[in-house]
Design brief:
alpha+beta; about 15% strand; about 55% helix; two-stranded antiparallel ribbon; elongated; about 400 residues; single chain
Length: about 400
């Protein structure tokens, strides 16, 4: 133990004696670890933000929507959930409540919304009064769509914060008229802002009554998505199975044939998005971790130069009785300490970069550094230092002391 402490002291003394060279040696490790930590912290923050957004839906929520496989989409085909599907679900599934159907009105892509010369293109979503309870989203000012609005097909709307800003409307625009696809609509409320997710604004929309959307739209058959609540948590799976069986029967799907729709719980939706985020984070982290290998090569090169510069020092140490093993331990420990120091600085710098990126990009969420990422970064940095420090250490250990003492 005493011998190891002596070797460590000599390694630290050598590092301090060659400060500038030590900084250059660790620079590659610092950059590599900082890049990995920055990516992991931003992606972890995004994952937590997504979890918080879906947690508002509750465990008793179900979402039913159409699903078109990629190969069919490439052929220009698209599966849809029809009004008949929605009506059958409401009539035949007893476990559900707070049913909220929704579809893209006017067109599948959106429409122009204008007021006093200001114009923006946005999604026009037709829905019912159950939307705010099913999705746990409520107006910031004004009111939401009511059952009377829907039954009487009133030309009213609730707008998102981004639409309000794009049209240069006041903070409370209730009572003002805007035109949707050339038709006048009365603004009765503005929804609470939700920010962005994956770079897409969640506040860029206009909500209109469901039956109003059917009256003004040119769609032959709207693609309806449904959000609903189940009357108790222990009946969620039962409700999902009944909806699945009902839709398969309505769509005349044969046994073994894939569903052309999806029935998902809020937890499953959250898991799907989180899985995408995690996979993206892993790929990005793997890509930037290549810079750690570059840093390791830098350590090896500079340590080889260090061995050449310290040839006489090595010769003196061997002449005084230092064994090849002790010389090798010293150089390996130097490389490991330099890598570890680079790892510490890299973690701090990476977290700072992550905080900066998350503050600049809206909707990402605060950067979060998992402990496993910190531990893995330190371990990887140390291993890189040891592996790439092995060749210089072996070269120093094999050096002939007489030849070394003659070196100028």
């Amino acid at each position: 133990m005493r011998a190891l402490l002596d070797v460590a002291g000599e390694a630290v003394g050598s590092i301090r004696a060659h400060g500038f060279r030590s900084i250059l040696t660790t620079l590659g490790i610092v950059i590599g670890v900082a890049a990995v930590i920055a990516v992991v912290s931003v992606m972890s923050g995004l994952s937590r933000s997504i979890t918080q957004k879906f947690s508002g839906l509750g465990g008793d929520s179900l979402t039913v929507r159409s699903h078109t496989p990629l190969e069919l989409s490439m052929q220009g085909r698209r599966n849809r959930l029809s009004l008949r599907d929605y009506e059958f679900i409401v009539q035949h599934v007893d476990e559900i409540r707070d049913v909220s159907p929704m579809f893209m009105a006017v067109s599948d892509f959106g429409a122009d919304v204008a007021v006093r010369g200001k114009k923006t293109f946005t999604r026009i979503l037709a829905t019912t009064e159950g939307y705010q309870d099913a999705r746990q989203l409520f107006p910031r000012v004004g009111r939401f769509i009511t059952g009377h609005d829907n039954r009487s097909r009133r030309r009213i709307c609730v707008i998102g914060e981004k639409v309000r800003d794009a049209l240069d409307l006041p903070n409370d625009p209730t009572g003002r008229f805007i035109t949707i696809a050339g038709e006048p609509f009365l603004v009765v409320g503005v929804m609470e802002p939700r920010g962005e997710i994956f770079g897409f604004s969640q506040d860029d929309f206009v909500l209109i009554p469901f039956k109003t959307g059917l009256a003004i739209g040119d769609l032959a058959e709207p693609d309806v998505s449904i959000t609903l609540k189940v009357d108790s948590l222990d009946r969620v799976e039962q409700a999902a199975e009944r909806i699945t069986a009902l839709l398969r029967q309505l769509h005349r799907l044969k046994p073994g044939q894939a569903n052309d729709f999806k029935v998902q719980t809020a937890e499953e939706l959250n898991e799907s998005f989180s899985e995408i985020v995690q996979m993206t984070g892993v790929v990005l982290a793997a890509m930037v971790s290549v810079s750690l290998l570059v840093g390791g090569i830098g350590i090896m090169n500079i340590m080889l130069v260090s061995v050449t510069e310290r040839t006489r020092e090595i010769g003196i140490a061997k002449a005084l009785g230092a064994t090849p093993a002790r010389i090798m331990q010293q150089f390996l420990l130097e490389a490991a300490l330099l890598s570890l120091a680079g790892g510490v600085v890299g973690v701090v710098l990476g977290y700072a970069i992550g905080l900066l990126v998350s503050s600049v990009l809206p909707g990402v969420g605060s950067a979060v550094v998992p402990w496993w990422a910190v531990g893995l970064s330190f371990a990887f940095a140390t291993v890189v230092g040891l592996v790439f420090g092995l060749l210089p250490a072996a070269k120093a250990a094999r050096m002939d002391p007489i030849t070394a003492l003659r070196h100028e």
